[in-house]
Amino acid sequence: MANDQKNGESFPAKEDHKKDDAAAPAEVDHKDEFSASQPHPVENIVLVGRVTMECHAVKAVTPEGSILNVIDTPGLFDLSVSAKFIGKEIVKCLTLADGGLHAVLLVLSVRTRISQDEEMVLSTLQVLFGSKIVDYLIVVFTGGDVLEDDGMTLEDYLGDNMPDFLKRVLILCGQRMILFDNKTKDDEKKTKQVHELLKLIDLVRKQNNNIPYTDEMYHMIKEENERHKKEQEELESKGHSEEQLAALMKELQIMNERNLKAMAEMMEKNMKIAMEAQEKLFEQREKAQEMSYQQKLEMQEKLKQMEGRMRAEMEAQMLSRQQCSIL
Fold first, then answer.
1. Which of 207, 241, 259 is the last residue of a domain?
2. Same-domain status, 68 and 118
3. Helix axes 164-172, 121-129, angle to 10 degrees
4. Do 220 and 161 reside in the same domain of the chain?
């Protein structure tokens, strides 16, 4: 892969995607249960990449004893996945992230070219979680073993041929990035990688004044789940018969599912807006590639203006929808 790059092939060089690149980069001890007296607060870490097709969370303990709630998010790198499915899974993700998001890890592989799906991920993240999500973003490159075999550093790999998408992501996230070797058997190297990632997560926390990220959708979901829990507790305290309680609990569950579905549908509409806007930008970019140098410069300027207008329109439409009441 890196040899191809040295021979002048554009970044990143072609290579088949490896399944082990999709693994969560931080190799920490997983635990199923924790003591209620655990002194360390839980930090919610969202993992974005070709990791999973279903949202789920795994608790992990770092070498220092900190607890990470690692939440995999589905389908954000796959344009074939429906907006409806993504909307439903993101609602699940925000439900799992009790207390807000402490960091978002964008996982990219140095083994493969940046795809159109991956180029969409920044706008997708901002649509799903809000524009300020970049303040919590860390870019994790996997496949470090390949670069090491070719005697390259991450900086060598990025070089002068970095895609505009990646330049923009790194600028917005303050150049927070790390390279992981998923295949190493060296325990010392594994530990060093984990420590470097944890330092970046700690940096994100400090730069955001120890305030986890939340947005309007997060608060809507939290309020709905708290309402549902409170009503369940009230029912249990009223002395209903077992049969009556079961029936009333079922009604509450149906109402909760209906309200969460309405929120997922709101996310679905926002996703469709983002996808349509991004597709238009891709079409315009393809046209620009066929133009002369001067025409390309003019087109690039138009694309920047177009993207700005689209983002403003998207945000206006999404804000309008989010202000609608959910029954």
1. 207
2. yes
3. 40
4. no
Residue 112: which CATH number? 3.40.50.300
Query: Is 327 part of a structural domain of the chain?
Result: no
List the pLDDT tens digit at each of the 327 positions of the chain.
Answer: 333 333 333 223 333 344 444 444 544 444 433 333 344 568 899 888 755 667 778 888 877 777 889 988 765 656 567 778 878 888 888 888 888 999 999 988 887 777 666 777 777 788 778 888 999 999 999 888 888 888 888 888 887 677 778 888 899 999 999 999 888 888 888 889 889 999 999 999 999 999 999 988 888 999 999 999 999 999 899 888 889 999 999 999 999 999 999 888 888 887 777 777 767 766 766 666 666 666 666 666 766 676 666 666 666 665 665 555 444
pTM for this model (two decimals): 0.71
Amino acid of residue 205: R
Same domain, 69 and 173: yes
Task: Pull the structure tokens for residue 149.
Answer: 């075999």
Tokens of 315: 């945000």
Question: Total domain count for the chain?
Answer: 2
Indicate whether 179 and 220 sit together in one domain.
no
The domain boundary, picked from 182, 207, 232, lies at: 207
